[in-house]
């Protein structure tokens, strides 16, 4: 490992979809069924090694409640990657993903790569968003798509580890 690359990552998505839970699963390998709703935003870091390169992830976990929306541009503005999260059991949270993509496209940087996470895949018996439609939408906008569970940890490290390969060569 020769040098450490800084990588700013922002999590976006409706309140309750599991943004904080995904970050806490990735950073601390913990999960709480009573995770509190985020106020404003929270910041965590974790350094990982992918393909012999070290990345210091600077992770901004934003608050999904509408009253905090006006704060969010300052978190995505110079982000390397945005992870937009929805809850596979709540179709309106997938509509919110599309709204975030539009906002990023108009107000964000064209260099910010997008990953879409369909979270709570442990609740697949209550699924309301088909894998195929989410994958088709992600393909259409050139985003990574992955289903995750912060509860079981399924695909959580994988999602974060796939970000470096998405970044433009620098
Ligand atoms: P805001 O901070 O309000 O924007 O919400 P958030 O997106 O950060 O959601 P949070 O991580 O607080 O999770 C909301 C609720 O969903 C909590 O009760 C979590 O325990 C639960 N939760 C999060 N991820 C999962 C998951 O993968 N599976 C299940 N079953 N529950 C989850
Ligand atoms: Mg939160």
UniProtKB/TrEMBL annotation:
<dbReference type="GO" id="GO:0003924">
    <property type="term" value="F:GTPase activity"/>
</dbReference>
<protein>
    <submittedName>
        <fullName>Small GTPase superfamily</fullName>
    </submittedName>
</protein>
<dbReference type="GO" id="GO:0005525">
    <property type="term" value="F:GTP binding"/>
</dbReference>
<keyword id="KW-0547">Nucleotide-binding</keyword>
């Amino acid at each position: 490992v020769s040098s450490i690359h800084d990588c700013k990552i922002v999590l976006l998505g409706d309140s309750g979809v599991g943004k904080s839970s995904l970050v806490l699963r990735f950073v601390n390998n913990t999960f709480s069924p009573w995770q509190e709703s985020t106020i404003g935003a929270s910041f965590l870091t974790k350094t990982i090694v992918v393909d012999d390169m070290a990345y210091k992830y600077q992770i901004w976990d934003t608050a999904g409640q509408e009253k905090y929306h006006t704060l969010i541009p300052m978190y995505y503005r110079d982000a390397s990657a945005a992870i937009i999260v929805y809850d596979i059991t709540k179709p309106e949270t997938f509509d919110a993903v599309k709204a975030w993509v539009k906002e990023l496209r108009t107000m964000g940087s064209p260099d910010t790569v997008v990953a879409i996470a369909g979270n709570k895949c442990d609740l697949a018996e209550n699924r309301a968003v088909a894998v195929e439609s989410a994958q088709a939408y992600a393909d259409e906008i050139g985003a990574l798509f992955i289903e995750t569970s912060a509860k079981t940890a399924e695909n959580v490290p994988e999602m974060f580890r796939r970000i470096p390969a998405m970044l433009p060569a620098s």
